[in-house]
Amino acid sequence: MKIYAAKDYNDLSRKAANIISAQIILKPDAILGLATGSTPVGAYKQLIAWYEEGDLDFSGIRSVNLDEYKGLSGEHDQSYRYFMNHNLFDHVNIDKENTNVPNGLAEDAEAECSRYNQVIRNLGGIDLQLLGIGGNGHIGFNEPCDVFEKGTHVVTLTEETRQSNARFFSSIDEVPTHALTMGIQNIMSAKKVLLLASGEAKSKALYDSCFGPVTPDVPASVLQLHNDVVVIADEAALAMIRENTHWEGSVYDN
Ligand code: F6R
Q1: d(CA 102, CA 112)
Q2: Residues 88-146: pLDDT tens digits?
Q3: Across 194-213, average pLDDT
């Protein structure tokens, strides 16, 4: 795993967008694994700007998103489908038919998870998986747990995650209690993983994920076992790594 230091959120976003755009240029029909949340918004904005300047073409790109709230329709303004349309897909020339997000309204959620695993398989796997990280070390909605769940599955969101995501809803009661998420094997099968972390609230989870034991109790720690992981973190998120490793440079080969 390689850890790259970004000065601030803006620098992190530009570095991330550079890596995603390199993937799009090198493989115009790439399969992108995409994430929602606050962290990737700046990178998506940068990709849109480069698309508008004529530097990027999304026409052949296919995408699979990590997760979706159970019980929210794609039209709900807090659904992850809505987020993706609003923050990226509506602004570039990607064919929406080629974008995949789990269906939060599926009557049979288990069947929807199997269908989603099949979608990923049919696409031939993910070329580049973009990830944020939860303050508890979650990736996708793989919450701290006793085992690594392999495939797409239904999860009960932890209270910490619901509290943290309540900022997007009018009250905590409106935050769904369950979600559908890609599992650890789906994520680990991606050829390349790009993990972004911004802000002090991620500092401990990032340190534990990169330097602690590999354990389902810190789901992102499994990334230590992947052979092509790039972490981009701003100085606030790097605080604990800096403190414990005495690393002062801009690239850390872990
Ligand atoms: C989003 C996702 C989550 C977020 C994580 C960080 O699709 O799967 O794992 O990446 O909760 O969220 P932010 O970026 O809002 O801090």
Answers
A1: 7
A2: 999 999 999 999 999 999 999 999 999 999 999 999 999 999 999 999 999 999 999 99
A3: 98
pTM: 0.97
Could you give the CA distance from residue 138 to residue 116 in angstroms, rounded to a whole number? 20
67 lines ligand 1 (CB under 6 A): yes
134-161 exposure pattern, b = at least 16 Cβ within 10 A, e = fewer: bbbbbbbbbbbeeebbeebbbbebbeeb
Residue nearest to atom 12 of ligand 1 (CA): 37
Q: Dihedrals φ, ψ of 199, to 5°?
A: 95, 155
Cβ(190)–Cβ(125) below 8 Å: yes
- Residue 143 in tokens: 């919450």
The three-class DSSP label of residue 129 is strand
Tokens of 233: 């973190």
Residue 187, token pair as written in the block? 């994520």
117 is catalytic: no
The active-site residue, picked from 65, 67, 127, 153, is 67
* Residue labelled with tokens 């990590």: 66
- Measure the CA–CA gap between 221 and 229, rounded to whole angstroms: 12
Q: Is 219 in the pocket of ligand 1 (CB under 6 A)?
A: no
d(CA 168, CA 227): 35
| Annotation marks residue 234 as catalytic | no
